[in-house]
Amino acid sequence: MLDVLLVVVLVVFNVYVAVWSGLPRAERSGCGPWAGLGLQVVAASAMLMRKARPLTALGLVTGMAVVMSLSMWLVPGWFLASADGAGVWVPSAAPVAAYSAVVYSTRPRVAWALTGVLTLLATRLWALSFAVTASGLVLTAVPALLGMYVGARRGLIAALTERAERAEHERFLVAEQARAEERVRLAGEMHDVVTHRIGLMVLQAGALRVQAPDAHVRQEAEALRAAGCQALEELRDLVGVLRSPQSAEGVVEAGTAEGVRKPDLGLAVLVAESRAVGVEVEFEEVGDASVLAPVVARTVYRVVQEALTNARKHAPGGSVRVDVRYEVDRVRLAVRNTPPTKPVDGDLAGSGDRHGLSGLRQRVVLVGGTFAWGPLPEGGFVVESALPLYVPTTRTWIRSGEPAASRPWGSGT
Question: Which residues, other chains included, contact 60 with Cβ-Cβ below 8 Å and sequence gap of 6+?
């Protein structure tokens, strides 16, 4: 738009100059000022391509300046405003052409060569005149020097911007590496300390099951041993995820190849437990749960478990709906509860460390999923999550804390 406005201004200026200075002479000589005006209009129109093809525009203006200079000896008065050759012998678009060529051209040597020819024709060094030389420099060399400054400034800004972006990327990589190292350290601590203690508990429960004379004690010892074994398996998967998604996937694939049974989600058991304490729960499960990797299955279980626990604590008397959908590449789940219809038990609601949802979000992100929660517009609360069927080999970090109510169910994450 600015280039079009520039061309209009140049054309109007040249029409004014041609009519004001050339028309009386044209009426006497019969040649008319239209040849020079047409040359100026063509040069002005070339400024439309001063950014896309700056050297072409400058070359066209320089060629017209050569024609105007030659016309002074061959056909005086045809291409110049004054028959005596006073003034500068270059088109009025010369300053714009010189400036644009230096700023936008990728071949600076050619741009400066054409600008030198244009300056030579404008200053007419073979017939020195202070007024002509000064005017020629102002119309050609000065715009070129200004263009050189603007081009150098743009290059400097681009270099500083690239350096800042590179430094920001390097800081991100350093922080990512620090997080990865901290995760590996935590995984090692969990493996060395927690696994050792749980392993001792499993061994002691197994010994008690064998040696206890009472059948009830043996039964409880077996239940304790089974729970410990399950905890060890879950801990192994979690340690693998903490170390790296690739190692976690290797654990899952190895477990499947060895014929280890994938854990039952037990979501129906969770729902039954909530119904047993008086919570109205509507449960819908669509798809095949057996396609889930073990670590993903346990994460789904924990999300539903935490959501039902929070509903019992903070929305007594309200109803809960649990939706679980197993899709082609991921599992989506949502747990919604209505507002409470009974007084909230302060002691029960205040129990816990108040980090359950935050901890779940971290666990979901570790396996490459998304997690969101928040109040519903009509009241109540919703917890939504989407997890891959298998632990991905690359992980996408998401923005946490986004209200789940702002994203409709089934719209994707």
Answer: 42, 43, 46, 97
Question: At which of 127, 157, 187 does a domain end?
Answer: 157
- Domain total of the chain: 3
Instruction: Examine the domain organization and report whether 14 and 150 are in the same domain.
Output: yes
Range of the domain at 338: 267-406
Q: CA–CA separation, 85 vs 80, rounded Å?
A: 7
The secondary structure of the chain in percent helix, strand, coil, rounded to multiples of 5, reads: 65, 10, 25
376: CB partners within 8 A, 6+ apart: 336, 382, 405
Q: What is the C-alpha separation between 360 and 17, in angstroms, rounded? A: 78
Q: Are residues 249 and 271 in the same domain?
A: no
Q: Which among 252, 251, 209 has a CA at the least distance from the CA of 227? A: 209
Whose CA is closest to 115, among 148, 72, 81?
148
Q: Indicate the pTM of the whole model.
A: 0.44
The tens digit of pLDDT for each residue in 237-249 reads 677 666 655 444 4
Query: 188 with 308, same domain?
Result: no
